[in-house]
UniProtKB/TrEMBL annotation:
The protein's name in its UniProt record: Probable GTP-binding protein EngB
Residue ranges annotated for the EngB-type G domain, each copy included: 22-198
Keywords: Cell cycle, Cell division, GTP-binding, Magnesium, Metal-binding, Nucleotide-binding, Septation
Keyword Cell division annotated: yes
Gene that this sequence comes from: engB
PANTHER family hit by this protein: ENGB-TYPE G DOMAIN-CONTAINING PROTEIN (PTHR11649:SF13), MSS1/TRME-RELATED GTP-BINDING PROTEIN (PTHR11649)
NCBIfam families noted in UniProt: GTPase_YsxC
Length: 198
């Protein structure tokens, strides 16, 4: 699938104010700084669409981007950023939870994890939470340019082992990506294209 148009639609902290068109949407979630906004820019071939930063905590709102006039990519704030205040954390948590639990046209969540790190408790908790609320999700390993291919495969195998040990029956659909060298771009876009066609 090719992206021919990508437009910013709205940012907000109130899931009720998200666009009300019943179009499929795909949300990017994961720890702060894992590369959610960068991945959206990589997929859409637009370096300036979603705001990125070397410092964690950049994305603070729910951001809708309309793609090819008929589906949405959604950039979300990261979780697990220690330096935001407790009240900010609680606010994020509230609207993110509300978004995942109430957003009817949420088609699939992409849970991003840094391929260099072993499975983190907070990510496993979030994955289990998505399982509990029955939101379909994929795992996206990010920053694959930082390690070699063999190491990347080893990281995925280790992740799989951890998930199986955490009561998952199988490794969910997953993608190895890099926003630097565009690894995984076609795979992620083809997946979205297939789901949209179903
Ligand atoms: P928050 O909005 O703070 O939650 O962060 P985020 O998950 O949106 O991360 P963002 O896309 O802003 O990227 C964080 C940092 O990681 C930036 O310095 C990016 O340049 C860098 N980065 C993101 N993806 C990649 C990648 O695939 N490879 C490399 N080498 N760096 C990356
Ligand atoms: Mg971001």
């Amino acid at each position: 699938m090719k992206i021919t148009s990508a437009e910013f639609v709205i940012s907000n902290s109130d899931p009720k104010k998200c666009p009300n068109e019943p179009l499929p949407e795909y949300a990017f979630i994961g720890r702060s700084n894992v590369g959610k906004s960068s991945l959206i820019n990589m997929l859409t071939n637009n370096k300036n669409l979603a705001k990125t930063s070397g410092r964690p905590g950049k994305t603070q709102l729910i951001n809708h981007f309309k793609i090819n006039h008929n589906w949405f990519l959604v950039d979300l704030p990261g979780y697990g950023y220690a330096k935001v205040s407790k009240s900010v954390k609680a606010t994020f948590q509230k609207f993110i939870t509300e978004y995942f639990e109430k957003r009817e046209n949420l088609t699939c969540a992409f849970v991003l994890v840094d391929i260099r790190h072993e499975a983190q408790k907070i990510d496993l908790e979030f994955i289990n939470y998505l399982g509990t609320i029955e939101v379909p999700f994929c795992i996206i390993f990010t920053k694959a340019d930082k390690i070699g291919r063999v190491k990347a495969q080893e990281a995925v195998a280790a992740y799989r082992k951890t998930l199986l040990a955490n009561n998952w029956e199988e490794m969910p659909q997953h993608f190895i990506t890099s926003s630097e060298d565009k690894t995984g771009k076609d795979e992620v876009l083809n997946f979205i294209g297939q789901v949209n066609d179903d």
